[in-house]
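quick one before i forget lol
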Amino acid sequence: MDIFLAFKNSVKRALSWLHADKEKRREQETENVDMSQQLEKGDIPAMIISALIVILPVALLALLILALFGWFFFVR
């Protein structure tokens, strides 16, 4: 009989943890929704332009290195 009480307490503790985790996730989802509503009209294009400013030079540098690598081994 005592073993059932031990399992009952474990199940109760696990269910309360799951419930608390579900509440945390729900709060995080509402925070994410609030953030998307705070964006202004020009924010999305600004983020795209800033991403291109960051990513494009790195991609061009990688392409240049690959081109130099190919030129060095195949042409020379």
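fyi Residues 15 and 21 are 10 Å apart (CA to CA).
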